[in-house]
Design a protein that fits this description.
Structural class: alpha+beta
CATH class of the largest domain: Alpha Beta
Number of domains: 2
CATH topology of the largest domain: Protein Transport Mog1p, Chain A
Shape: elongated
Radius of gyration: 21 Å
CATH architecture of the largest domain: 3-Layer(aba) Sandwich
Oligomer: single chain
Length: about 280
């Protein structure tokens, strides 16, 4: 109940704080047409084949326009994803992880010569070059102008703070809407990668309840399919995934938190012990 009420409060607060979109004017770039606005009902007209993924992450509106600067033409797309967590999810899904993360908005990536990506509050911004080439400096300048026009604070989604912080691999957060680790029962999973003291890599993850759910209701369908074990007064549900090891989950402080890639039960319990100590 606590986390359900809290998450609803976060959504309402985000709606109030983000405000209305003031479409940006980009220095040295001219609009080639008027700004087109797309809703969930016609998003496929703009990104046919990719619309379902955006809708899955809570897409609300898309504002799109083509811009030109000399012999360079680009499409500027601003997606209103409804909440900072939804925007974070689609941003981490599409932006190249190996590229330098820039402190523009919440975070930005310039993948010259063809793309740029920006995350800020509930907005996900994408640059796509369709003529000529974009330099790193050009991409940064455009994203800075967009950032200045977008309302809302530039903090990362507050939900990221709920995952364990010890041994976290920087920049490894992701938000997976469906089929985490290939399992249909694991939806709305916030996750990050970790490196243990013996250099083994694994993930902690947390199930994010919808407004009408709580952590206990999320575990019901898992309890029906997974095995369980009692540990330190908690029930841990677990199952083995072929070639990946044991995945497990328990309720800790009203949050459904899990661990992946454990080679055996002893390692699994050791990783839960670390969470219990941190909390």
């Amino acid at each position: 109940m606590i986390i359900r009420v809290f998450m609803l409060f976060v959504v309402i607060l985000t709606e109030l704080y983000a405000g209305k979109l003031q479409f940006p004017e980009i220095n040295n770039w001219q609009k080639e047409d008027t700004v087109a606005v797309y809703s969930p009902s016609n998003l496929w007209e703009r990104i046919n084949g990719a619309a379902d993924q955006y809708l899955n992450y809570g897409f609300r509106k898309l504002y799109a326009v083509d811009l030109r600067n000399g012999n360079v033409g680009l499409a500027l797309e601003i997606y209103d994803m409804g909440t900072p967590l939804n925007a974070f999810g689609i941003y981490t899904t599409e932006s190249p992880p190996q590229k330098e993360k820039l402190k523009i908005g919440t975070e930005a990536v310039v993948a010259a010569p063809s793309q740029g990506f920006l995350l800020k509050n509930r907005y996900y911004v994408k640059l796509e070059i369709f003529e000529g080439k974009m330099t790193d400096e050009m991409g940064r300048n455009i994203l800075q102008d967009v950032d200045a026009a977008l309302s809302g604070n530039a903090s990362y989604p507050i939900e990221l703070e709920f995952l364990p912080q010890a041994n976290l691999i920087k920049g490894s957060y992701a938000y997976v809407k469906t089929g985490f680790q290939g399992l249909n029962e694991l939806e709305n999973c916030l996750t990050a990668h970790y490196k243990s003291n013996d250099s083994e890599k694994f993930q902690y993850f947390m199930l994010i309840p919808a407004a009408e759910e709580n952590s206990e209701s999320l575990l019901k369908k898992i309890a029906e399919k997974w095995q369980s074990i009692s540990y330190m007064g908690n029930t841990i549900y677990y199952r083995e995934i072929p070639y990946k090891g044991i995945i497990s989950i328990a309720i800790i402080n009203d949050r459904a938190i899990g661990v992946t890639d454990s080679p055996d039960q002893e390692t699994m319990l050791k990783r839960f012990f670390a969470i219990f100590n941190e909390k």
